[in-house]
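Predict the 3D structure for this chain.
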Amino acid sequence: MELCTFCGIEREHVVYGPGVCICELCVAEVSSAADHPVQGDGVCSFCLKAERHSCFAFRRRKIIVASAAGDVQICSSCLPIIQNVDDRNRKAASRS
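Done. Predicted structure below.
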């Protein structure tokens, strides 16, 4: 069991980043909140990259969600990867 960095609750299935992790419940909550990006500049806790503004949409990176404490943030580039890993974790857990 690991402690989810977003909600602070011990969970069995989490997605890991460098020094952070997020549980499947927080992934679902973050996914629904992605339509309302966080204001201000920041650094993603999973890829450790700062926001990037560009006139080209594919080059933009926005911090789209932050934990309640604001210490953990996820960018628009990492969220789809986190969702994919979470889906794979749930499928693997359901097979066993």
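The chain has one domain: 2-88.
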